[in-house]
Amino acid sequence: MANEGTHNVEDLHLTNLTKKFGEVAAVDDLTLTIPAGSFFALLGASGCGKTTTLRMVAGLEEPTSGSIHIGQQDITNLRAFQRPVNTVFQSYALFPHLDIFENVAFGLRRRKVKNVDAAVNSMLELVELAPMARRKPTQLSGGQQQRVAVARALINEPDVLLLDEPLGALDLKLRRQMQIELKRIQTEVGTTFVHVTHDQEEAMTMADTVAVMNSGRIEQMGHPADIYELPKTAFVANFLGQANLFAGARTGTSSDSIDVVANGINFRVLSTRNSAPGDEVIVGIRPEKMTILDLHDKDTIPSGHNMLEGRVIDVSYAGVSTQYLVETQWGQKVTVFEQNVLVGDRSSVGDPVVLHWSPDHTFGLAGGETVLADTAQILAVGA
Amino acid sequence: MRWIKSKLLGVIAVLVLIYLFIPIAVVGTLSFNKPEGKYNTSWNQFSLDAWTNICGVPGVCDSFMISVRIGIISTIFATILGTMIAFALVRYRFRGRATTNLLIFLPMTTPEVVMGASLLALFLNLRFPLGETTIIIAHIMFTISFVVVTVKARLQGMDPRLEEAARDLYAGPRATFRYVTFPLVAPGIAGAALLGFSLSFDDFIISFFNAGTVVTFPIYIWGAAQRGIPVQVNALATLVFVVALLIVLTSQFVSYRKRKALEAGMHSDSAIVGADVKGLEAAMPRS
Amino acid sequence: MAAVLPSAGKQSQVSAQRKSRTGYFLLLPGMTWLAIFFAIPFVTLFMTSLQAPVAGKSGQYVPAFQVSNYPDALAEYWPQFLRSFLYAGIATGLALLIAYPLAYFIAFKVGRWRALMLVLVIAPSFASFLLRTYAWKTILSDEGFITSFFNALHLLPDDRILNTSIAVVAGLTYNFLPFMILPLYAALEKIDPRLLEASNDLYASAFTTFRKITWPLSLPGVVAGTLLTFIPAAGDYINSELLGSTQDRMIGNVIQTNFIEFRDYPTASALSFVLMAVILVMVFTYIRRAGTEDLV
Lengths: 383, 287, 296
Description:
The structure holds three protein chains of three kinds. By secondary structure, chain A is an alpha+beta fold. Chain A is built from nine helices and 20 strands. In chain A, a hairpin with a 2-residue loop joins strand 12 and strand 13 (265-270). The radius of gyration of chain A is 25 Å and the shape is elongated. In chain B, 77% of the residues lie in helices and 1% in strands. Chain B is built from twelve helices and one strand; from the N terminus they run H-H-H-E-H-H-H-H-H-H-H-H-H. In chain C, helix 7 packs across helix 9 (206-235) and helix 11 (251-261) runs antiparallel to helix 12. Chain C has helices at residues 4-16, 21-49, 69-108, 114-122, 129-139, 145-152, 165-189, 193-201, 206-235, 238-243, 251-261, 265-290, and strands at residues 18-19, 52-53, 61-62. Chain C is globular, with a radius of gyration of 24 Å. Chain C has a two-stranded antiparallel sheet with strand order 2-3. Chain C has two domains: 22-66, no CATH class; 68-290, MetI-like (MetI-like fold, Orthogonal Bundle). The chains are: A alpha+beta, B mainly alpha, C mainly alpha. Chains B and C meet through helix 1, helix 3, strand 1, helix 4 and helix 5 of B and helix 1, strand 1, helix 2, helix 3 and helix 4 of C.
């Protein structure tokens, strides 16, 4: 049961957690520690196992094997209603026959807590819905329903609050607003939030730790900026934002960097930014890290930068930035974002250009056919 | 021409609706009749006799009360049994699902003569005395399926996440049922009970086979048809019609207001509306 | 999106199904009731249909294996059998013709009045079935407006409607009409009106749209409706008894009188059994042909 008053927050540990549906492993030998008080996001495409993981923590799904601990307490075999964990459900699952007050009071009443009224009222204050207490859920807007769902779970002071695509049903503007709102609430109450989403932007803006999940496993985990700046797998590079990838082979190693030749072009990758163990290396670069220059201005490129020549085949103006599609000599299409800070001519379709970028932004990924196949798959889904 | 074309469908639809109500109008009108002979089939003279003295003919009100009693008892049983089956079908995995489905489907597609006759054959072979008990047994049997279908539709229209949310919020299995599942399914169960009652109350064929000497309201009408139906019967039937219509209209009005609130809340859930329609479809009394 | 949601809901429902003894406990009482009072009676019905009479004692029979009861019963009553299916078939066809426009109207044209319209469709069933049928006696009587109208046009072979097959079929059509309207409505209501607009947009005339889009998509409703109308109509004897003459008796009448009045249980049982068998065969071939297996 959740504690009253002082709230000892403890880490959530998942150990070798596996869930199989028939032969298919939805969650595959997952080991993970979610630090107490953190805002943790499980990010992945639909079917990657993130929701199943969440449901196992909630006690709504039984793990095939493995265990779940909060601090020292093993909760693997506790029923959903016995766990100090509460959930904000996808599309909220507010009880339609109860008013807002009774929805929020539901957990307290089941646990026979005293002073329900005071607790509910102050919780409704927190989510700014006090005037709506006697309305039915259907009479509220989507954003208000979302806040009721959060209040209904939080009032129980759970050790861990689980959020299953909580903003999925809201429109874009409201979603931005609720992202800030949820963050504010989390900071205020200090509870561990575990947030499941397929929206990378949502995960990055809200969470202090993001875990990218794919096929039942965690591909990479860390601070959003760290993962974005230095992805460790092709999947992460493509799922979290966009990336241009060039498959090549290591040709030399110096004290602080390696040389990789891809399609006859030499790239320099800092050793600290290379996660490929072998000789097959994929060189990656984010589109906004590249600078696009007219071919005549090639000499102005700082020495030591990686560069690439090509021809502009598409230009899309998107307000904040301009997006170029550049075709290399070997036919690969490279995406480049240029901030619209310069006044004057931009490159236009057909222009021969040169792209360059610093090795500080270049990253190296493990190569191999499966990786490329994975990448192709993501790109296909993305397109 | 275009106007006629665009309105034609509506005109036909209204005509069909009128057609459905013609016999009701006749029954109602003739309840204010003072028939010339013993047959109350053509209009003679306005009279309130049947309404002011509704039990005036021996047997009419007795048979009416017998039908009400049989209806209530068999509805209670059928609703409980049918609701249990509906829960099992939606919520549990078990062996023999196909057989179960068949056994629920068949009573709805079996002609009533056959059901009545086969049940009578059973009672005769068992030398079971015919009477109110056998009628009630028969009514429970043929209404269960309709209860199952109605409650099942309601259960399936329910978001399974609601019960998960209850479990997540410290409600054990009993509390989940009591505070979430039951209140949400209750309208479906109530609808099923109303349907069950109307099926039982209006049943003639199956009852007639298994009644022995008991005279239910429809059996009374059947017998009276040969020697002339008393005007009181028309009055009673009209009364039942009006009361039933009021009940349904009231419940529709309530659910309409709920749905309006739902629309105001921006969340229109077609699954719920769909379940209502399926319930209505199932809520069709059989003769 | 809308098409995806319901199936997703269904899936989560399946995963919500528990495997436990409670399921069997919930099923047991109701299914036992149906087994004893619905399934087993078919067995006794079958056994009764093979019984042999006790010589000299009318209404008394002994268990036997007298298969000849079947050909004997059919030889005597085949006209009533044929008549039942004929009347029920015509009534079902008429009901489909009458019901379709109304169901279509409710599904596509009345907006928020749908619920009220559906109540109006069901409402007539609240009045006694027998009395409503009896009321047709008044409406179709020889002195009535309808009979005189058709007589003025010389359209009636016997110069009357009441006590003819026309009256019986009319009664059957009327009585089971709601069973046709509701499934049709349920099927039509599921059709996205944008499909009809898309069809119009793609150069289909109103008629072609109906033939190529509306009708095929409403087929599940047509199947359910025809079954729900045909089956009770084929077994009915009230309409024939109240509105027809002795020339219009249907198989239901024969079963009823043999069972209750003549106490010829074997014959009545044999006829019931054949009726049920024929209907079941028709139901299953019809469902298979029309390809809608999930009626329940």
